[in-house]
Design goal:
Two copies of one chain form a homodimer. Chain A is of the alpha/beta class. The first copy, chain A, folds into two domains: 275 residues, Aldolase class I (TIM Barrel, Alpha-Beta Barrel); 36 residues, no CATH class. Chain A is 40% helix and 14% strand. Chain A is built from 13 helices and ten strands. In chain A, the strands form two sheets. An eight-stranded parallel β-barrel of chain A has the order 3-4-5-6-7-8-9-10, surrounded by four helices. In chain A, strand 7, helix 6 and strand 8 form a beta-alpha-beta unit. The radius of gyration of chain A is 19 Å and the shape is globular. Chain A starts with 5 loop residues before the first strand and ends with a helix. The N terminus of chain A is likely disordered.
Chain lengths: 329, 329
Amino acid sequence: MPRERKEGMHRDSWVTYRPSIKVLDCTIRDGGLMNNHRFDLDFVRACYRACCAAGVDYMELGYKADKALYSVNEYGPWKFCDEDDLRRVIGDEPPPIKLSAMADVGRTDYRRDILPKEQSVLDCIRVACYIHQIPAAIDMINDAASKGYETTLNLMALSTVSESELRTALAEVVENTPVNVLYVVDSFGSLYSEQIRDYVKLFLRYAGENRDVGIHAHNNMQLAYANTIEAIIAGANRLDVTIHGLGRGAGNCPTELLLMFLKNPKFKVRPVLECIERYFFELQRSIPWGYSIPYAITGALNQHPRDAIAWMEGDRPNAIVEFYDRMLE
Amino acid sequence: MPRERKEGMHRDSWVTYRPSIKVLDCTIRDGGLMNNHRFDLDFVRACYRACCAAGVDYMELGYKADKALYSVNEYGPWKFCDEDDLRRVIGDEPPPIKLSAMADVGRTDYRRDILPKEQSVLDCIRVACYIHQIPAAIDMINDAASKGYETTLNLMALSTVSESELRTALAEVVENTPVNVLYVVDSFGSLYSEQIRDYVKLFLRYAGENRDVGIHAHNNMQLAYANTIEAIIAGANRLDVTIHGLGRGAGNCPTELLLMFLKNPKFKVRPVLECIERYFFELQRSIPWGYSIPYAITGALNQHPRDAIAWMEGDRPNAIVEFYDRMLE
């Protein structure tokens, strides 16, 4: 089964693997959108240990949100990723995994809150923005890079952006920043495999030789895992996953599924299964993430999942016909 | 987003559609594997009406199983598809949908139980077999075709068959029968998109101009819908689905997801959503189909789902680490 990117002497094949593929687990960051990042330390430590033992390359522990905008009473520590909280997760041993935090354009006091790299356990700052925020994102990427971090651009809601605007945005970012990874982000869970392939190929042209392309998929239409595989085939090397798919609404590409697919022997699924068994089945009783038909409807209609999330949290989540009719209005 | 098959003057694209695509809903047949086909008449009628209103092309109402092998006390009417039972479903109006039943090689007394077409409401007999049963399948296909039915070959457990054996089997069937459709059947839910594409292309070479290729996917690794789309792109025209994914173990490609994807305006998803809302959420409390990690493990290991089904029906379905360790033994 040929892959489209060559590496070394051999064509990619499903019996070989591409060493440049890196997995980023964002369970705490994306899953925290379901509970205002109020995970307790024991849970975050368990996920951290599972990711380390599983051979995951990066773990994202939360957001660097501005405390002037978000109350520390309302939001848990993983909304802010203070150094003391991060160090409580990793303990005294040097992490065998790279750590990242996400910084949203307009919601991060980055000049103050993103510390120089030598004062932080973080390795990577991921800058998330919408298309109209590209100039601000460029400033944030340059700020983080100058402080010593790896950086990524996570351009959200791609499915609402015209191709010409997207090309302009990508050109601006690669010309004006040292960004390391350009992410294809399917915020609405609305993209089909052919679209994923076309986006990854477009992003690869702007990434050039020295940057990677990443994929962040959502499971609104049961396509998060399939679209992640499709992105791999098209050449994406940075893959976002969450344990048991924990994430906003329908959730994300499950870490355990991707690790069973990837052939690099450094990846081990068993530590992730242990973590799921011990923590996630219980968690599912209080946080209702995962695929449901209202998410499929917003995904198929290329709409933000907020209406589906509100419907699922309401009194009549099973009234799917009324939800469908409303979404078509 | 180009499709790989041309039709008429235009290349396929996701803004156009391929009129030759036909959807087959096998909710009652595949879902019946979860309850010995003991659905009550009201439920089967509701699914039938939903499929008719949704523009689905074929509906499969069950198996033509041999009553010498399966007790009518233990199994419900959709295991046998007697004419009287079928007619109770469709009522007095001529069906706006074609009807099929599945006949398993070795489990059907086909010379006796498959009636001449003019005595039956069925339009299509789907012959399911494993690779070693191809000679018997050829006999059954010819029997059904001579009685006036459309026929399909549903070759199960493809992922365990070598390519040379598969080529021999396909050549034998197309040379020696008038079969209308050759189905790619992912019985174990173990196939990835590239494998689906390669199988569909191989099957298309044997199908030639006058036969179609079909896809029957399972959702063990959350890939049933994605693999069905992949099969469409590769040229498959006959697509198996079930309402809300109801089917053995992890279930199937959901009818509602596929109908939201297909662009032919004859397809309507709303009747399917109505049927789900009225019947399926309730049914899910008594029949536990759908994606769970044990199914993903058997799928990833290319194993029959029987061990996962037994585990999910046992006392400790959440003991996924023990299940994983056992499957690796």
